[in-house]
């Protein structure tokens, strides 16, 4: 299997990652660091942790995503 990173250094994508402090903050922040370290050109990577529970983070996440797509 060929990985995207083996073919090009560009990734023209907007990606927002969000996490809940009372939930998945460690796994999501680790994934953010992993992706950020790849240094893709044209890759807009945003990470927003929220001080809430995993069950309540979805609305904040959707709003943040909409703000990113439609500033």
The major β-sheet equals:
2 strands, parallel
Number of strands: 2
> What value does the average pLDDT take?
88
Q: What sort of overall outline do the alpha carbons produce when their principal axes are compared?
A: globular
Estimate what percentage of residues fall within beta strands: 35-45%
Going by helix content, strand content and strand pairing, the class is alpha+beta
Q: What's the order of the H and E elements?
A: HEHEH
Number of helices: 3
Distance between the termini: 37 Å
Cα-based radius of gyration, to the nearest Å: 14 Å
Quickly describe the structure:
The protein is α+β, with helices and mostly antiparallel strands. Helix content is 41%, strand content 37%. The chain has three helices and two strands.
What report would you give on this structure?
This protein has helices spanning 4-7, 25-36, 57-69; strands at 10-22, 41-53. The chain has 71 residues and is α+β, with helices and mostly antiparallel strands. A two-stranded parallel ribbon has the order 1-2. The chain is globular and about 40 Å long.
